[in-house]
Amino acid sequence: xxxxxxxxxxxxxxxxxxxxxxxxxxxxxxxxxxxxxxxxxxxxxxxxxxxxxxxxxxxxxxxxxxxxxxxxxxxxxxxxxxxxxxxxxxxxxxxxxxxxxxxxxxxxxxxxxxxxxxxxxxxxxxxxxxxxxxxxxxxxxxxxxxxxxxxxxxxxxxxxxxxxxxxxxxxxxxxxxxxxxxxxxxxxxxxxxxxxxxxxxxxxxxxxxxxxxxxxxxxxxxxxxxxxxxxxxxxxxxxxxxxxxxxxxxxxxxxxxxxxxxxxxxxxxxxxxxxxxxxxxxxxxxxxxxxxxxxxxxxxxxxxxxxxxxxxxxxxxxxxxxxxxxxxxxxxxxxxxxxxxxxxxxxxxxxxxxxxxxxxxxxxxxxxxxxxxxxxxxxxxxxxxxxxxxxxxxxxxxxxxxxxxxxxxxxxxxxxxxxxxxxxxxxxxxxxxxxxxxxxxxxxxxx
Length: 447
Fold this sequence. Notes:
4-stranded antiparallel beta sheet; single chain; alpha/beta; disordered N terminus; 19 strands; Alkaline Phosphatase, subunit A
């Protein structure tokens, strides 16, 4: 009898709702490209702890992501096993055409429309924890939760987190670690190091059966400097040390643990910005007031890094739809605008993207969608952003990372290219329960 068959037999013999299998630590390094691990020596990277996964466990050559290849939609797919069209987190920021929400993000787990691994694990009788995972505020099923949220970077952000974290947890861990917990807006390497210390303290104190930990400094550096730059490599080498400490802590607390390491997307180097708002203003699809703020709108770009969903105020209005399509086709016909593709509703649905979008604009590598800058901003201009993601999934540079090692995981197992949707059901299977809403099968980890 193989391991999974034995596990199924064990589960059948136990009381309903109780899982008997390996605990899982799930670590995410935002923006980690698989080649940075698999080709570390060729790229001049000293990352022994990440390389350990390749030597002692199984690994994918690349992970095909979701539409769009952004942090929040991707992390929600990683924790649910379903596409953005089903889980509802279709961008990082909420849609805010009147600019009322002050740049608010999809922080709240109540926006997730599909069961999460946290919920499923809790229902199976397992304890769960979280440190900074996206879309985790008030997440159901999380026993010990330090969710990701921020507003302004003001000191009051710490009070906000105090109110939203598991009662007493932040204070308890601050006393153990001997320093304040990093604010949510902090995407720096010191912020990651701080959260790594809190995660190791959480492991030691509570030994959760399932723990999620999110690290963000690599993504921040690649946006600012570009992927593969000396600065980005230096940050990744420091994050490697954080991963080493997390693995050591987990294996000390739970020797039977399985440790999975993922990322949400890859990266494209960028140099030019496309301001989609300007053409929409010129075409009277967006109307500004005397202060340059949006007064009304008929169609609005919802930008997502390397792509943009096009939202219509009246999506069933055939004349408005045709008007917007004519504008987009005209923009795409001019190569200097950097538009690679315009997807209609049928293709958006096929890719599992935003079901409310009437169109989706994908840019060529090297281009990013610019933020709203008013009626006088140029349509195309150089951008200070040196790296970006958020494009349509598929190209090699946008593929993300999956590494896994621990009890029962065969060493040196090459998984090839995998679908991001397969990761959550795989982790559920390892922990001894099912994730029935997952859209694809779990990964075959047999030797």
